[in-house]
Fold this protein.
Amino acid sequence: MNLLTTLLLTVNETLTASNAIIAVSLLLFNLTRNLNNRVAKSAAVVLACVTFAYVSDSFIALGPDNAAHEIASRLQWVGIAFVPAAIYHLSDALLATTGLPSRGRRRRAIRVLYLIGAGFLLSVAFSDSLVQFVDVQDSVSIQAGGAFLVYLVYFALASGFAFHNVQRARKRCLTQSTARRMAYLQIAFLTPAVGIFPYSIILPAGAEFTVYGLLVINTANIIIILMLFFLSYPLYFFGSDIPDRLVKKQLLDFLLRGPATGLIALAMMNFTAQATRILSLPGEALAPPAIVGAVLLWQWFVSLALPYFEKFFIYRDEDDGQITKLQMLSDRVLTHDDLSQLIVATTESICDHLRIDRAFVISFERAQPEFISRVGDLDFAESDLLDDSALLRQLALGPDEAGAANHLKWREYTLVPLLSRRASGNGARALVVGALGLPTNEALLDSLAAAPSSSLQPFVRRVETSLDDMRLQAEIYNLLEGLLPQFQMTRSRAAPVEYRQSGALAAPANNLPERAELFEQVRAALRHYWGGSGISQSNLIQLRIVQERMQSTEDTPVHALRKLLADEIDALKPGGERKMMSPEWTLYNILQLRFLESRRVREVSRRLSMSEADLYRKQRIAILAVTDQILKREQQARAQ
């Protein structure tokens, strides 16, 4: 019987620590999410109560002396005293989310419940009227005091009304998915309160250390672990702006890499403590490599198995082809810097192949040609070549009708045109996407004469492919940058169609856009100021101030929006003569140069004498200023 008791005590320590790990992990995950949402904030309070109770319980399981045991038991009541009020608070937030906000009674009840919880906490901290501590078997047993019946009434009433509120919220769900999530939530809703309830109080003194008592406590701990996971699933959908699929993906990834890793490390620690007698090694020596090995193997397993878990739990009802294409797009698309680094590496390979010490690549991807790669010390300034417009125009003509390459001489360099293979596949003349500059020597002339079978051609093709991909991916990025801010439907906006909204909460049809959403739309419109989906398909056109401008001036929607943006930028201009270095002119100069004049970041940062990182930071501030002006004008227009 002693062996069984020892085993159950070890299991109890493991499960108690597991509950603490899970509660802390879920609390940390909750804190990284939208705490501006009432459900998220109240759920964080509930998880904080559970965390406090189980962390204290884990400390007690380590076997401190009786004095420390009693102090930890009293501190444990920080969570026990407040959890009934916290779950009622959470139920009120859920009911308000479905369109039934408190008219004052539930709000007052929440305050009263928290005050009652504070009273219970003070009672446990400074007296034995609520609970009493008895020394039993070199440990401390908690017994009910005279006022414990009052706590039972408080616990039962708060939990009962909280459960009733969730039932009311579930009845207000209009869609099948929201009703299902609310039903899941209702099943596990009382888990935090029931899980940290001091069951040992209702047992005889010392009974919690018997086989029967430990079986009851361990069974309850196992149920609590499962129900905490079950509770976390529906809670994280509330207040989220991202689709359900991403909520599930984030939660699954976090649970596998966070709590699961902690539980495995804890299990290995307990295993090594028992296995030392088998391997004849001290536990202190065996534990570190065992824990590290188990964690590494688990992370390796998660990396391999996570795609299959996601497909089974998340993408099971999705179109496999669509998901595969989205994942392939994410894997294949490289950034501008990635492709630039690849071009630099290829240029260096060309130098090694031709035994030359310098070379360069020019890209025609943007409105103005720019140097993408420079190898070695060039004996000229970049502007010398970029300002030679006649040479660049002749280079941009590409090969002639017969396909002969148009190699040009510039000083002691030979400029090899780099062609787009995509544009030349339909019979049209090849589009020049850049130029490769190499010092003229006999080896180079022989390679160019032997084209297309020369050994230089594979390197040239690689640079051409990189530039071609750079152009294509820039088009994809510009398209996404213009369209993404125009998507209006998010999870947070789905409430009117998911829940039965009350008349008091019915949102007006002409509600103002949120500041963050408006900022993204203004930024996209400015980036596409002279053309692109960011301005042509912008939701800003629906603003009343733009519609009024269209009616009064008979402008097109795009022209009216462009004038509005120009006017708001002009409103930021200080009085007096324009100064490039003056702090008062910084925001206006950035907007004017970057968007109205379409100048590149490098050029603007040089003219304003600031780093590119500082320019991006101040550019965001400038766009926010324009956003606030537009939002203020729209509010005034709708108030009239």
Observations:
- The longest helix spans residues 283-313.
